[in-house]
């Protein structure tokens, strides 16, 4: 593996990733930033790290979407009540 990322940088990267998940979109700028954060840590080229970021984002967003859809199907009123809380 490469150079370890500092805890502060990891926290910032997680915050960026989480904010993008909330909006449902991974911007090119954020993909590049996140790729630059993980590339040295994983010993990868920046382009490979950006592909990894985009893949993990898509995978995580799909899992969230599936969970939300399952929740809505299981209990439409319960899902709405939780959303409004």
Give a verbal description of the structure:
This protein has 85 residues and is mainly alpha-helical. The protein has one domain (7-84). The protein is 82% helix and 0% strand. The chain is built from four helices and no strands. It starts with 6 loop residues before the first helix and ends with a helix. 11% of the residues are buried.
Percent helix: over 70%
Secondary structure tally: strands: 0
- Report the portion of residues in β strands: under 5%
Total domains, how many? 1
- Number of separate helices: 4
Kindly provide the radius of gyration, computed on alpha-carbon positions and rounded to a whole number of angstroms.
16 Å
Unreliable parts: none
Gap from first CA to last CA: 43 Å
Helix/strand-derived category reads mainly alpha
Return the average pLDDT rounded to an integer. 88
């Amino acid at each position: 593996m490469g150079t370890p990322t500092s805890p502060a940088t990891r926290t910032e990267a997680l915050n960026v990733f989480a904010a993008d998940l909330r909006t449902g979109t991974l911007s090119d700028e954020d993909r590049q930033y996140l790729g630059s954060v993980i590339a040295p840590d994983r010993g990868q080229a920046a382009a490979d790290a950006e592909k990894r970021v985009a893949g993990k984002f898509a995978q995580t967003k799909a899992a969230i979407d599936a969970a939300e859809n399952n929740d809505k199907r299981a209990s439409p009123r319960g899902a709405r009540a939780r959303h409004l809380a």
